[in-house]
Specification:
The complex is a heterodimer of chains A (377) and B (332). Chain A has one domain: Orthogonal Bundle (Cytochrome-c3 Hydrogenase, chain B), CATH 1.10.645.10. In chain A, 51% of the residues are buried. Chain A contains 15 helices and six strands. Chain A has a three-stranded antiparallel sheet with strand order 1-2-3. In chain A, a hairpin with a 2-residue loop joins β4 and β5. In chain A, α3 packs antiparallel against α4 and α4 packs antiparallel against α11. Chain B has one domain. Chain B contains twelve helices and no strands. In chain B, α4 runs antiparallel to α5. The chains are: A mainly alpha (377), B mainly alpha (332). At the A-B interface, β1, α4, α5, α7 and α14 of A face α5, α9 and α12 of B.
Chain lengths: 377, 332
């Protein structure tokens, strides 16, 4: 016969979980991300991301727009990296229609995309450092980003939503003297990178805040579908500029920095190195800009043949893919679908923050570098 | 009557006004210095070089609507900002601005102890403010504040013991006079203590890189998230008044208070034409500049790292310093 032993009653020191609502008005959620945090003291037990606050239905809108008009809407997805969004889309359409793009246009596209990467990384570095409490870096990186925006303004007239590319090439050639200014910017940026690194890279507090925070292994990163610097930070060598070269990337030499530990500090170092590699690419492209037309042979009215295509490029945030379906009859896509890097990287946040402190949550939002305009579309 | 009531009251009035006015200008100084560090101009609109910003800011805060959240604990909510400001101001009663009794309100023989005990009351303001707001972010912030304050209070007080051992007195006036008599600032005799008190001071005033209780990017403003208008301004005043207090303590203990540089070098005696209180205030502002400079430069510590630094580094070093000082005192 067994005697049931009464189990110890609930301990007198029972603790409760604290559910805290971070965002959508929180200052460090980089837009309107809402995270429902379950906390044990300051330690995160679980985090659920709530998105959709800037959902504008861009994918559906695009299905009712002309193939050319869509370029304008792609600007509005990742609004801090509009040029790479344009690039991915126009290349996808070119792939669908099998349009040959002139070499000069491909070179200029590469320059624009890499300048955009620098601008986007500037914004990332500034806000990431700001979240961790180093506020001066933000002002420094914005000063340099301003230079890139000025360059874009001179090129296409817009500072944020460029609408800078067309199916088949580029709408505008570079203005005279522009390449010299880009060279000046490359030199300036290189010296300013030293300033940022001096403030952060060997700073003990910065190291303590980022080392071993949000560690993720390569396999797990692939499993979560991470892309871009968060994936490379875990040592997985995947950069579409090398693996599936678009624009003119196959003609330039550059390295893909890889992390070893997969923590926030590695991801920081990788992006810092990507600044340098982007400058290297821009310099090579400027040296070798070929003469020639900037538009290929494109029909007046775009009407791709029936079929579907997927084309992905390496945006500053990661793998930006466009899936397009044309029915071959109408002048708008039958289906328009984006694989946004921010959205996919955000899926990793839940895994990354588990077991860390509240202060690390903001560091980790910074390290995955999301733009909510792209997450929600 | 004149000696016991009128003159002290006059002194208190002058001192309070001086502190409050310097706090408003300290805010301006912080904005300006950080702006220069960040290649900006800072406030430039109100008055020449934005100087009048220091007057406009408080006016704005006074005129703003003062909101009390419905679910807050009304009395504590009102009491908290007062509790954090009053101790910060009371401390100035024992801060000597010069050797003459004219320059201080009172010289009590346990002045240093008075400062330590009164400033630690200030944290109740933050704890109660966070609690009374009945909101989660302020609650987390006030938890952080209490843990932080306790840990750093121990380190700082322990360090002060070594200074007391060196000086042989607790009176602030006498501590400075000892430095004059010995002809050397204690900063040179007790460099470790100086660093510890300064770091501890940063932590106790919730300044960067230890500004966890208000960590704007983590806790959306921390303990004063729910505060607005004048009550918020009181917290603000308290923070800056505390900065001045810590700077004053550091200057009094380690940098010879109102003494001119190198008090033992006689050919520098011509520097004495500068009044003592100007030396004192100048030194205080030099330290306030360092406070601001640090804020512009460093990232923020994380809660657990902050506790680790306090308990694993500062407190052992402080105890070691006390022991070492005591041994030296016995030997020499």
């Amino acid at each position: 016969m067994t005697v049931s032993v009464p189990r110890a009653s609930v301990s007198a020191f029972d603790t409760n979980e604290l559910v805290i609502n971070m965002g959508p008005q929180h200052p460090s959620t980089h837009g309107v991300l809402r995270i429902i945090l379950r906390l044990d003291g300051e330690r995160v037990i679980d985090a659920d991301c709530v998105i959709g606050y800037v959902h504008r239905g861009i994918e559906k809108l695009c299905e009712n727009r002309d193939w050319t008009h869509i370029i304008l809407l792609t600007d509005r997805m990742d609004y801090v990296a509009a040029a790479t969004n344009n690039l991915g889309y126009v290349e996808a359409v070119e792939k669908l229609m099998q349009i040959e793009v002139p070499r000069r246009a491909r070179y200029l596209r590469t320059i624009l995309a890499e300048l955009q990467r620098i601008a986007s990384h500037c914004l990332w570095l500034g806000t990431h450092a700001m979240d961790i409490g180093a506020m001066t870096v933000l002002l420094y990186t914005f000063r340099e980003r301003e230079f890139v925006l000025d360059l874009f303004e001179e090129y296409c007239g817009a500072r944020l939503t460029y609408n800078a590319m067309r199916v088949g090439g580029l709408p505008l050639d570079i203005p005279p003297g522009w390449d010299a200014k880009v060279r000046t910017f490359c030199d300036l940026m290189e010296s300013k990178l030293g300033d940022y690194e001096q403030l952060l890279t060997n700073n003990r507090i910065w190291l303590q805040r980022t080392r071993d925070v949000g560690v993720i292994s390569g396999d797990e990163a692939i499993g979560l579908g991470l892309c871009g610097p968060p994936l490379r930070g875990s040592g997985v060598s995947r950069d579409l500029r090398k693996d599936e070269p678009n624009a003119a990337y196959d003609e330039f030499e550059f390295d893909i920095p890889l992390g070893t530990r997969g923590d926030t500090y590695d991801r920081y170092l990788i992006r810092m190195e990507e600044f340098r590699q982007s400058i290297r690419i821009v310099r090579q492209a400027l040296d070798g800009i070929p003469e020639g037309p900037i538009m290929g042979k494109v029909p007046r009215l775009l009407k791709p043949p029936a079929g579907e295509t997927y084309h992905a490029i390496e945006s500053p945030k990661g793998e930006l893919g466009y899936f397009l379906v044309s029915d071959g009859k109408s002048t708008n896509p039958y289906r328009f679908r984006v694989r946004p890097p921010s959205f996919c990287n955000l899926q990793g946040l839940k895994r990354l923050v588990k077991g860390h402190l509240v202060a690390d949550v903001v560091a980790l939002i910074g390290t995955i570098d999301i733009v909510l305009g792209e997450v929600d579309r | 009557m004149l000696e016991t009531v009128v003159i002290p009251l006059l002194k208190i009035a002058v001192l309070l006004n001086a502190v409050l006015v310097s706090v408003t200008f300290l805010v301006l100084m912080e904005r300006k210095v950080i702006a220069w560090a960040q290649s900006r101009l800072g406030p430039m609109r109100v008055g020449p070089y934005g100087i009048l910003q220091a007057i406009v800011d408080p006016i704005k805060l006074i005129l703003k609507e003062d909101i009390t959240p419905v679910k807050s604990d009304r009395y504590l909510f009102t009491l908290a900002p007062i509790m954090s400001l009053v101790p910060a101001l009371v401390v100035f009663a024992v801060v000597p601005f010069g050797p003459d009794p004219l320059y201080y309100v009172s010289d009590i023989n346990v002045g240093l102890l008075f400062i330590v005990s009164v400033t630690s009351i200030g944290v109740y303001g933050i704890i109660l403010g966070g609690w009374a707001s009945n909101s989660k972010y302020p609650l987390l912030a006030s938890l952080r504040a209490s843990a932080q304050l306790i840990s750093y209070e121990i380190a700082v007080t322990m360090t002060l013991v070594s200074v007391i051992l060196t000086a042989g007195t607790l009176s602030l006036v006498e501590i400075v006079e000892t430095q004059e008599a010995r002809g050397v600032w204690f900063g040179f005799i007790q460099p470790v203590a100086l660093v510890l008190v300064f770091i501890g001071g940063l932590a106790e005033t919730n300044r960067a890189p230890f500004d966890l209780p208000e960590a704007e990017t983590e806790l959306t403003g921390g303990f004063h998230t729910e505060y607005s208008g004048m009550r918020f301004a009181l917290f603000f005043l308290a923070e800056y008044a505390n900065m001045i207090v810590i700077s004053a303590v550091v200057v009094l203990l380690f940098f010879g208070g109102w003494l001119r540089p190198f008090p033992s070098v006689s050919w520098l005696a011509f520097l004495d034409f500068v009044p003592s209180w100007i030396w004192f205030i100048g030194k205080i502002f030099a330290f306030l500049y360092v406070f601001i400079w640090i804020r512009a430069t460093l990232p923020r510590y994380r809660y657990d790292q902050l506790m680790g630094l306090g308990w694993k580094v500062l407190i052992p070093v402080a105890i070691g310093n006390v022991v070492l000082t005591a041994i030296m005192k016995v030997l020499f």
